[in-house]
Task: structure prediction
Amino acid sequence: MKKSINKTEQIKSIINSAPDGTLFIASDFKSIENSAAIHVYLNRLIDQNILIRYSRGMYQKPKFNANLNSFINPTLLEAAETIARNNNWIVVPTEEMALNSLGLSTQVSNQLVFASSGPNKKYMVNNRKIIFKHTYRINELMTKHKKVAIAFQAFRTLGKDSINEINIHTFLPRFNTSEVQELIDLASNSTRWISEFTQKFNLNNYETL
Result:
C-alpha cells in the first residue's frame, strides 16, 4: 500500500506543478508507472477532483473561473496538440488557422485542420471537428522554427494562384531574420511556385521592409 501511495503522490506533484487547465495523457507519467497501470492512479485522482476526464485518454487539471462561476474547458487547439502528443505525431495547423496566425485571413473555421506526420484521422471534441491530414512533406513540419512550418501550410492553403496576393512588406516583418532564412532555404527544395515566391524575399533589405 505504501508503494501505491507514493506513486499517487508523485503523480499529484507533477499535476500540481502544472498550470490550471493543463491537459495530461498517460505517457506524461511514464517515469512513475507504465501506461497500462497509470490509469488506475489517474482514476483515483479523478475521484479526488484532482483531475477531470476531458476526453478519451485525456485528463485535465481543473481550471475554475470565479467570474463565470464555472470550470473552463481546454481550447480546441490544446486538445488537438494533446491528441498529437499522445500519438507521437508532428502536426502543424493549416487552412484558416495557418492563415490567421500569420495575419493572412480573419476568417474563423468551426474545425481545425492539421498537416500531420501520422495517418489521416478525424476527432469530434465538444461538437467541433479536428482533422489530421497526413503529409509526405515531413521536412516542412520538422522545421527549426514553428512559424516557418506554419508559413508553408499557409502557402499551400492559398495555392499557386493566390500566393502572389500576399503583401510581402506586411508579411515578412512577422518573422525574424533566422526564420526568414530557414524559410528561403527550405523553399528552394520545395514546390516550384513556393520557391519562386520566396525568391522575392531579400535579406539584404529585410530590416527596411
Summary: The chain has two domains: 2-71, 76-208. The mean pLDDT is 89. Helices lie at 2-17, 35-47, 76-86, 95-101, 146-158, 168-171, 177-187, 192-198. The radius of gyration is 21 Å.
